[in-house]
Fold this sequence. Notes:
Blueprint: H1 4-11, H2 18-30, E1 37-40, H3 49-56, E2 65-69, H4 78-83, H5 100-103, E3 108-112, H6 119-131, E4 133-135, E5 142-144, E6 148-153, H7 157-162, H8 168-174, E7 177-180, H9 188-205, E8 212-213, H10 215-223, H11 229-243, E9 248-249, H12 251-255, H13 276-309, H14 313-328, H15 338-342, H16 371-377, H17 383-397, H18 402-409, H19 413-423
Parallel strand pairs: 1-6, 1-7, 2-3, 3-6, 8-9
Antiparallel strand pairs: 4-5
Amino acid sequence: MENVQSIKQRFELIGNDIKLNRAIEKAVQVAPTDISVLVTGESGVGKEAIPKIIHSLSHRKHAKYIAVNCGAIPEGTIDSELFGHEKGAFTGATQTRSGYFEVADGGTIFLDEVGELPLTTQVRLLRVLENGEFLKVGSSQVQKTNVRIVAATNVNMFEAIKKEKFREDLYYRLSTVEINIPPLRERQDDIHLLFRKFASDFGQKYKMPTIRLEEEAIGRLLKYRWPGNIRQLRNIAEQISVLESNRSVSAPTLASYLPNANSSNLPAVVGQEKNESDFSNEREILYKVLFDMKSDLNDLKKLTLELLQNNDTEKVQEENETLIRKIYGNQENQPTKIEETLSTEVLHLPEPVLENSYVQVQRPSEDRYHFAEEIQEEETLSLQEKEIELIKKSLERNRGKRKAAASELGISERTLYRKIKQYDL
């Protein structure tokens, strides 16, 4: 059995991180068997190296090795790609086609991004894992295959299972042995080593002197989180190699190539991202608070009008103070009068139409609220008389059309009809 160091040299793996070495050791140990392996890790960490190691050290090394990116194949054609199809099975199927499982019989199939497989395809894959049987699209004849499946994903499989995007039974079939590749930010000692390797490669490729990092630039390199992992590090090294004329790279120069360069290599909070439902719940709570406040103000106005009809000013002030306390709590600067309450910014909410009164409370203006003037007018003209007078004038202006009059008065047509009957107009 080959040791870890020789495997690294053979497959050009750079780094001495303990977690990386453990992942390679597991791949070497599991290679001689035929059990399924699931490789996990973030995007760009180099998961594709593990299935190559497993295949090359297995008894299937002389048979075919096929890598399939499940996320790159459209949902409508992935069954045909994996399992083949019969002539005429669907529009465009002009001839019979063999799928990857038939072509790779006796070898190894690497299913990259297996978490992106549609549920219908997952059922077919589960059958292959259980007994090696599959059906071509459009065929009823069961075929057998002897392939070893190595899968990889950057998806949190337990979350996918919880959301019913991935079958739990398929997960346990695939992950007989699970190998995790650590992200680059957890391989601090390997970051600069990898950068130097990439810089050397690109210097030879483009026939240019190899770039080198200054001390401060190395510190900046190690502090960056590298969300794109090794793939991102390689791209940065290539950009700098091609674009920079000065082959000694300073920290500010390096920072100009790093997106979100101010982010440090601190632990990130995971699993607590806010989704759309969270924001929706917050909006619902906010709306509820606003409408409750609006309802309290409407109750205050309605109660005030009812009490004014009975000329009970002391009761008005008492009820006002009660409702104001309900709305504002025990704030030090809370309003003490109905005029102050109704002139607050809360009244900028849409005003509802009161069924039992034609009176529409005006919005606040630069001159204070005019509600006090209505109280003084009560001495010479009762609300009932004023109501009758306004209804008559509105009916005259609208030539007896009750619908138009009701709209003008701000009440429903049914309420206007009841008022007409009540006052015998």
